[in-house]
Each structure stands twice: as C-alpha cells, then as structure tokens.
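User: Working on a comparison across species. This one is TMD11 protein from Vidua chalybeata. Can you predict its structure so I can line it up against the others?
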Amino acid sequence: LALYFHIGEREEKCIIEDIPSDTLLVGNYKVQRWDIHIHDFLESAPGLGMFVTVTSPTGEVLLSKLYGPQGTFTFTSYISGEHIICFQSNSTRFAVIAGSKLRIHLDIRVGEHFLDESAIRAKDKVNEVNIRLEHLIEQIHHVTREQDYEREREEKFRKTSEETNSNILWWAIVQTLILISVGIWQIKSLRDFFISKKLV
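Assistant: Here's the predicted structure for TMD11 protein from Vidua chalybeata:
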C-alpha cells in the first residue's frame, strides 16, 4: 500500500489496515510542508516530527512513538482485524498560525521480511541459498496466514448472511400470520355487523 494524504499541522489523521494475526507490518513515511511563498510542498519538513500511534482491534495501543520528518515504524499484530494507524505532527505553534498544510507519503508493507542484500553478499553461496530459502518460507507462511484470515472472514460473513436470511424468513411468516388473523377478524366483524343490521 503506497499513498499520500494531506493534514493540517496539528490535525490527526488515521488509516485502517485489516491484517491477520501474527503478521509483521512495516511502514515508511515522509513529511513535506507547504510553502506559501513558492505555492508548493517543500522536499521535507525539517524540525517537524510525527507521532505514530497504532491501536489493535481490541483498543490496545501497540505503538506510540515520536519520529522525525521521515521514518520507519514496525509492529506485529497478535490478533486478526482492523488496526488503526494514526499520524499527528508535534507542531508547537499556536492553532491560529499552525494552519500550514502537510503532505504525508506513506508506504505500508504487510507480512514482508526484508532481505539484507549486503549481508547476503558477505556470506558464501551455501549461506546465501539458506537465507533466501528462509525468506521464501517466511513469505509462504505469510500467504498461508492471509488465506486463513480470509477464510475466517468469509465464514463469518456467511454465518451473518444465513442468520439474516433466517430472521427475514421468520419475520415474513409472522407478518403472514398477522395478516391472516386481521383478515379473519375483519370478516367476522363484517358478518356480525350484517347480522346485527339484519342484512343477511
């Protein structure tokens, strides 16, 4: 996932990342500040830091740390679900003048363990094959976890759909019984009315 978004200097912006359990997430970001003189974003935002906060689906804070104008953050999920990743600058300017716009470039990678190519080159060929094989096995485990998580979500959705369909069926039956009861009551009321008026 690679994207960018705009926020105010003292504004908090959050994104939601749905990830399986026991999965590594690596995020790289870079902050650019808007320059009112050139009417464009500067290459960076020196002196400005970013608070990065990550919250699990249960509301537990997994990460809360102040980084610089660009940085890398990582965390490992311990349960499946929607994790909330929030960004907020550490600007200390007053709200009146802290209206400068920031652009955040964000690159998120889920389940990737990066190979250190320099370390691999320093090893002999056998170790290189071993390291690459371990990396491949880790990637396979990640794909397996992703598939298991998707199956769990699909099963949950199917159960919810079945419960909804069942409820709709029972509600239709109840409505039908109510309509039949009202119809019978109306027919009986009309019959009693006609009999009392000696029309039949």
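For your comparison, note: The chain has a mean pLDDT of 84.

User: Helpful, thanks.
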